[in-house]
Amino acid sequence: MTIRQVTNPSEKAAISRSVLEALRDWFEVDESRETYIRESKEWPFFAAFDGETPAGFLCLKETGKQTVELAVMGVLKEYHRQGIGRQLFDAAAGYARNAGYQFMQVKTVKEGVYPDYDATNRFYQSLGFCELEVFPDLWDRDNPCQVYIMNLQKSDPGLDLLMRRRSYRGKYRPVPVPREDLKAIMEAGLAAPSGCNKQTTSLIAVDDPAVLEKLHRVIDPPAGATAPAMICVLTRRIYAYRDRCFSVQDYSAAIENMLLAAVALGYQSCWYEGHITDEDRIGRKMADLLGVPENYDLVCFLPVGVAESEPAAPRKKSFDERAWFNGFPS
Ligand SMILES: Cc1cc2nc3c(=O)[nH]c(=O)nc-3n(C[C@H](O)[C@H](O)[C@H](O)COP(=O)(O)O)c2cc1C
Predict the structure, then answer these.
(1) Does residue 259's CB lie within 6 angstroms of at least one atom of ligand 1?
(2) Pocket flag, ligand 1, residue 314 (CB < 6 Å)
(3) pTM higher than 0.90 for the full model?
(4) Which of 91, 99, 209, 312 is the most buried (most CB within 10 A)?
(5) Which pLDDT tens digit goes with each residue over 60-91?
């Protein structure tokens, strides 16, 4: 898949027509579809190509001196869930940033009205858009308009990645994870800090379907069972000094590094720990299947794979409820 900016107006119109006419579920009103096709000729335009075939496109429209709107975006259904929307967005956001725009806005139907649009909301949230305001009457009462906004200039690829990470509990696509990617994720885990540099965390990646199947037979209730790979996190209680052991902090830092590395490489994952460290000792059963000595505990596993769906965004408390400056609020 290649992403490129298209500048020729008739090529833009041909691409937007081929994509929008195939997406009538979202662009069902002929008149507004034709308006998008006509107007897209004038707008900054980015398209994804499978060989020569357009798979999707995205247009930006200036709505203020410092602001662009993600005016229209469409990806053919057969290319959904392959990260194409995100790649189009990255190209458009890079263009807007370089062009000196400060903000990007996007409008959609407010969450909780139609399931299709709920998925669109989650997609925008996963890109880093923040809710600005709902306008109940901008379109019509049945379609309350949610405006999202994003600060383009402050964003940083590392911070964006960190804010995008979510616990993914959906299905995975049956696409193998190359060894070099698993190794890169594990290396990120091993690069984490550890108390007194005792490096109490060890890792085992599993990508052999027969071994995965054995492990999943003991994981009850099932979790991440469709993922083509898993990383098991092992810890040893090595004392840092006196009676101080930082093994929990050490493996937590390693896990977070690996979750971020997985997202950076286009995969999803979830921290499964509560699941396997209860009284039923699933972690020990998994450790035995992997030949792990008794002085190591298997405390967590991370499924790794390409997600079939967008991860759900959990409700998080606001900044002010959890973080303060210069003292606890009175
Ligand atoms: C120590 C720890 C243990 C966790 N164990 C599980 C688990 O067993 N099963 C699960 O589905 N999620 C587990 N999670 C993931 C959390 O539920 C998740 O991080 C939280 O709901 C916030 O969602 P987010 O990761 O998308 O921000 C665990 C997270 C941590 C930090």
Answers:
(1) no
(2) yes
(3) no
(4) 91
(5) 999 999 999 999 999 999 998 888 999 999 99
